[in-house]
Structure formats: structure tokens, C-alpha cells
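REVIEWER CHECKLIST
Item 1: Sequence provided? yes
Item 2: Single chain? yes
Item 3: Sequence as submitted:
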Amino acid sequence: MPCPSQVAQVRAARNNADAHPEHGVLSEEMQWVLRNARLHAADPALRSAAGFAQGAGRAEPVHRAQVGRWENGGVEMTRALVRRYETVLALPEGQLLSAIDFFARSRKPVRSAATLPPRTDPDVDATLVLLERALADERMTGLDWDRLSDNLGRMPHAMVRASDWERIFRRLLQELSLGLHLDYARRAEALARLAGHPRSGAVVAGLAEEVVARPDAQFYNDTLSLLQFTRDPQALSVLLGQLREPTSPSSLRACLIVLTTLVRGARLDPETRLEAVRLAVRHLRDPDQPYLVHRGAANLVRTLGPAGSHRVAAVLTAEDRQAAASIIRDGRAITSRAIREAHQRIRSVLEAGEGRAAAGEPILGDLLQTALGETNEEDRSNALCILMLSPQSSIIGSVHAAAFADAMARQDHVAAHESATVLSWMGQVEDLDMFERYALSPATPPTVAMEAGYVVGNTVEGPGRRRDEREAAFARRVAEVVAAGTGSGPAELQDELHAELLRGLVYVLGMRGRRDLLRALADALPVPGPDPRAMPEIARGILGWWLAVPEHLRPER
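Item 4: Structure as written out by the authors:
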């Protein structure tokens, strides 16, 4: 547990902007976050510098020139200043701070405290209260996790037992899996901070090793992603082990995502580097692996083997694996023309509406380029999270729904996957019928249907008859997929991709709190069999995960 003497250790290096050299690099991004939020204020009167300066009755008025200094680097960026913007614009606490944290995380993955922490030292008593709540069956808000993770991050020698670290991580991983929008962002940042704490590395590596060994795990990405935020030496060995003998396509994909990010900042010995490239190429050339695994393997080859990557791309081009070759050669899976067209459509909509002044911002352009064209999934996720928290999110979602529909009409499943990745962050209610149709159609490739399910599960829909019908339809499709995999012999699973489809379909019911439908599906399963890879057993584990979520962790939509 933290004690007062430990707080004194951080006083000499108080976490303000001057103590963080990366803030100079981030200053333009921070200023854009403030400026972009003001220019898209819900209240039109606050969009001008003069109107915003008045404070809307929620902050002390200032001269309009002060707004220019805030947004153009004339003053030091602080947490209090960002909070003023959130307050005046009536935004949820932490929405702009979270965007800044994700900008910083892109540049410095291992960081155990907030980018803009409070100016005061951590309150030990308040930290203990939060720690006890996190270890008990009590609700924790995103703000609670933000404060606890930042306080512990500024106490490098905090005495937290390994078993307590593990309980905190297990709980927060579960909450992250259920979170949406700002709730998700705050928990993701808190997890990254806690994983970067100097006392938690071995626990993080142990959790990752445990989850990749389970073929019935509902999620792999969130747990494995923790490995990029720790310097523990076990992290690399866990990922290489999964690369050698993957548990499932989902676990392999998660391994490739994190390993690609991890090796960018690590110096691998030549033997390890050669083995990783060889294994990645093997997965790339495996026709039974889904596109998302091929995409992850291509990213790893591009990151690890620039000297020989063009030869690999040439071989893949000859084998008609154009998307993988494009990723290795150019760092993108779709054409630069398609990326430019999507970017231009978004900009055109912005220029035609209230976002005209912000449409040409270079930082917005960089974010869109990364979100639309970057296949490295950690870089892309950071950009997508920032855009999800930004006023442009609904426009980006609508443009990509149209792009997804167009790609499916052309049967361009690579382009459909790329748009679905964006839409899992920024799906819009008006597009739910289309994604339901693709998710439930047996004609849709399983991994595309899986991603369409994730889009539906992540899009909040108000109560009503149409919502009830939608959820009942997903439950019927889950039953069909399970029944199709109940044969005997070596074809029990028929295709591991259908297990991935099952995860996406069940995700919709779980995220919408339909425990009644989940329970009915679980009760209808046949008696347990001996093969954990048989479809009914996979389904039992997936459904059981959702049904086991305790009351205090279930999100309050």
C-alpha cells in the first residue's frame, strides 16, 4: 500500500508540463484538441473566441485574446486549462484529457501516470480508498480508475501485493471489454498506466500467458495489449510462444498486433528476429488463416524485415496475395486513391456544415490518414480512439458505412474489413439495419460477419420494438451457428472461423445486456463433451463469460 513517505519521493520531479519533454512534441496536438472542441461546440455561441471567453456562466470570463494564447501555444498546457474547456463546453469530465493521453500514448507507450497530472502530490488516503473499492464488489467509474491509476503511477514504490495487482487487472480488463466511448477510453488509459508501473510487469506477463492458452476466451486483444506497456522481459517470450503455436486465429491476431508494436522499440537479437520473420511469413502464406491474421503478419514482416520485405512482397504478389503485399510494401491494405477519396468525403461534409473552420486542420488530416490507411493496428487504434472522442466521429462513421456497403457490393472484403475496423469505434444507429443484415447472413464471410457484429454491439440503440427484434434475430443466428458445429469426428468445428463468428454474434447480446437470451442459449447446449475445441464447448465458454459478469461490473448504458 502507498504510504506518505513514498509521496515525498516524487516531489522533486513533480509531474507538470515542464517535467515532461514530450509535451513540447505534443503541444500542437494538445492545442488542436482544445481548438477542435471549441469550433464544434454544441452551443453555437461558444464557437467564437469571444463567445467562449465569456465562460458560459461555468467559468470566469477572460479577454478573447486569451483564447488565442491557449490554442496557439502562448501559455503552458495544464490539466486545469483542459478542464476549463470541458467545463465551459459542457463535455463529460475527461473527454479532452483522454484524447491528449492517447496522443501521448502513441509516442510513448510505457507511461505510468497521466500526461497532464494534477499539480498536487497524490493523496495517499484517497488512493487507499480507491484501491479498496477496486478490490471489492463496488462500482468504479472511469473517473475513479483515472485517479487511482494516476496516483499509483506517481508512487513508483507503492506496496501493492502481486495478488492485488492481479485482481485489479482482471477486473479492469473485464470492465474494458464492456466499455464504450469515453468509458472505454478512460479504462484503456488506466490499464496502460497500471501495466507500465514498475511493480506490475510480472503480473501482466502471467495474465497474458494464461489467456492465450484458452481456446474459449472471449477476448484476447485487451489482455495481450498490456504487454506493450510494460518493460518486463517475459512479455516478448509470451508473444513468441504464441507465434510458434497459436491457440486460435483470434489469439494469433492479437499476438501479431502487440508483437509488431513491441519490437519497434526493442532491439532483438538476430536469431530471434529471423525466427519471428520466418513464422510471420508462414502465417502469411497459410490460406486457411483469415485476412485479419494475414494483415497482422504482414505488419510484423514490414516492421522486422525492411531489408528483405520487398522480396517477400514480390513473392506474395505472384501468389495473388495483393493485400498482404501492399501492407509490406506500402504500409496499407487498400489503395492510396481509396484513402484519399474517403478523406475527401469526410472533409467535404465538414466544410458543408459547422465544422468548416476545422476541416483543413493538418492534425485532423494526420489522424484520418492513420485511421483510414494505417494497417499497424496499435497506431490505428490510438487514432480511432481520438477521433471517437472528437466532434467529427458521426461524420466519419457515416462515410465509412457507405464505404462498407460499396465494398460488400463489389465483394471487396479487404476494403470491407478496413471500413468495419473504423465502424467498430464510430458506428451510427441509422446504419444498424445494414450491419445486422451482413452479420446474420450465412453468405457473408465469417470474419466479415464477426466484425459486423462488433459494429452492432458497439452502437448504442435506444429501447423499442426494432431493437428487441434485432436482438432476437442475433440469438437465433447464434443457435444456428452452434448447431452447425455439433457433428462428430475431426470436422466437429468445421472451420475455426465459425468460432470467430460466434464471438461477434454473442458480443451483440452481451453488450446490450440481454442475459435472458444468453441464458436461454446456454441452457440449450448439449451436455459437455471431451473436446474443448468443439463448437458447443467454445459456445459454452463464450456464453459463460458474459453470464459470469457480476452485477457491479455491468455497464449502466
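Item 5: Key structural point noted by reviewer: DSSP finds 29 helices and no strands in the chain.
Item 6: Recommendation: ____
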